[in-house]
């Protein structure tokens, strides 16, 4: 039976989403092809019809996760141009800290496995991370965009993403809910203070 291009694309999208959830929950080493195909509701043959290897599926899931974060930030900036940053930090250190690990942000949950990945995956991740940094930087407070101020905004974007990602990692790893919340509160305050104009 031949499937339409639309059906194939829907299946690919479903496999990428399922792979993202499984890799977040189990890590690259813990996620076998059987777990990926079961989560996506496809056969091994269907999986290999879309990806040559588990490594390719991982790379695709990582890039999709970072793109989802970038698009979420862009949408938030468009809907709340003045308060997007406070809303984003609250959401990231609130819901994204406490949601199911399979639904967590790709930045803290998948980056550790990217460090151990092949050069192609690391290069693709780097390119997507640069796009994410640029997206955040464009929305940060500060004066006119000159070469120097643009670099400063990108530096602040890097600081913000690193603080949020690291904060979520520590808060998720802590078994004590009170400590987890305390970490989130400290990081939220520090992140917003660090990128205020004049800092």
TrEMBL record:
UniProt-listed Pfam families: TetR_N
Keyword DNA-binding in annotation: yes
DNA-binding region: 32-51
InterPro entries with a match to the protein in the record: Homeodomain-like_sf, HTH_TetR, Tet_transcr_reg_TetR-rel_C_sf
Entry superkingdom: Bacteria
Keywords: DNA-binding, Transcription, Transcription regulation
PROSITE patterns reported for this sequence: HTH_TETR_2
Domain HTH tetR-type: 9-69
Entries under SUPFAM superfamilies matching the protein: Homeodomain-like (SSF46689), Tetracyclin repressor-like, C-terminal domain (SSF48498)
Name of the protein in its database record: TetR/AcrR family transcriptional regulator
Native organism: Rhizobium ruizarguesonis
């Amino acid at each position: 039976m031949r499937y339409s291009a639309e059906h194939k694309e829907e299946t690919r999208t479903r496999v990428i989403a399922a792979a993202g959830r499984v890799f977040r929950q189990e890590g690259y080493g813990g996620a076998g092809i059987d777990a990926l195909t079961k989560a996506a509701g496809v056969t091994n043959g269907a999986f290999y019809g879309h990806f040559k290897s588990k490594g390719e599926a991982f790379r695709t899931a990582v890039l999709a996760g970072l793109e989802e974060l970038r698009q979420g930030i862009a949408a938030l900036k468009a809907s709340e141009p003045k308060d997007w940053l406070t809303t984003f930090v609250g959401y990231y250190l609130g819901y994204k800290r406490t949601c199911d690990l399979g639904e967590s942000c790709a930045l803290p949950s998948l980056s550790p496995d990217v460090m151990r990945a092949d050069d192609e995956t690391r290069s693709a991740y780097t390119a997507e991370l640069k796009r994410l940094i640029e997206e955040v930087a464009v929305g940060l407070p500060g004066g006119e965009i000159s070469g120097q101020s643009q670099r400063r905004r990108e530096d602040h974007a890097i600081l913000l993403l690193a603080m949020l990602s690291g904060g979520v990692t520590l808060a998720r790893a802590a078994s004590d809910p009170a400590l987890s919340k305390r970490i989130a509160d400290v990081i939220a305050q520090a992140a917003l203070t660090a990128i205020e104009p004049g800092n």
